[in-house]
Write a structure and sequence with these properties.
Number of domains: 3
Strand content: under 5%
Helix content: over 70%
Distance between the termini: 100 Å
Largest sheet: none
Order of helices and strands: HHHHHHH
Number of helices: 7
Keywords: Membrane, Transmembrane, Transmembrane helix
Number of strands: 0
Shape: flat
Length: 166
């Protein structure tokens, strides 16, 4: 004969939560929370230590600054090297920016494209003269159609070349 169980004990057993399991869950949660708090406090101490540790490597000094005169000789040399590196980086960025701008200006839609369009139109006009009476589907007909397309293109057919330069 099986012993009689109370309805609440049956519910706990069915849910799978016994007192031992519940206690184990609480203990593991407390341990996890404690270790997370320890990690956070340790990382905040590291950050505080680093923020209080200001030296010549953290600040950019230049000759003429009162702080620059207070530095040791090696710190002054290091500060000047960092300043020179910063200036070099700035100059390299400016050079690359100028190159990018120059390349951008030489992209389609500029004066050079207009000149190539003009040469192509001149060549097609010469070919049209070579085929005075073209038949639909012939080479002469295709040349005339291409010439019409080029002359109809408002982006390329501009007599104002200066506006295309910019």
């Amino acid at each position: 004969m099986t012993p009689h169980r109370s309805p609440s004990a049956d519910r706990q057993r069915k849910a799978g939560l016994t007192h031992k399991k519940l206690l184990g869950f609480v203990v593991s949660a407390v341990v996890t929370l404690g270790s997370l708090m320890w990690i956070v406090s340790l990382s905040s101490r590291i950050v505080d230590h680093q923020s209080n540790d200001v030296d010549a490597r953290d600040v950019s000094y230049a000759p003429g600054d009162p702080e620059f005169d207070r530095l040791s000789r090696s710190e002054k040399v290091e500060a000047l090297r960092r300043e020179a590196a910063r200036i070099d980086e700035d100059l390299m960025w400016r050079r690359s920016y100028r190159l990018r701008e120059r390349r951008r200006r030489n992209q389609p839609g500029t004066y050079e494209v207009h000149e190539s369009w003009k040469r192509e139109v001149e060549n097609l006009e010469k070919q049209v003269k070579a085929f005075p009476n073209p038949v639909p589907g012939s080479i002469g007909w295709d040349v005339r159609e291409r010439l019409k397309e080029l002359k109809a293109d408002p982006a390329l057919n501009s007599s104002d070349r200066e506006s295309l330069r910019d």
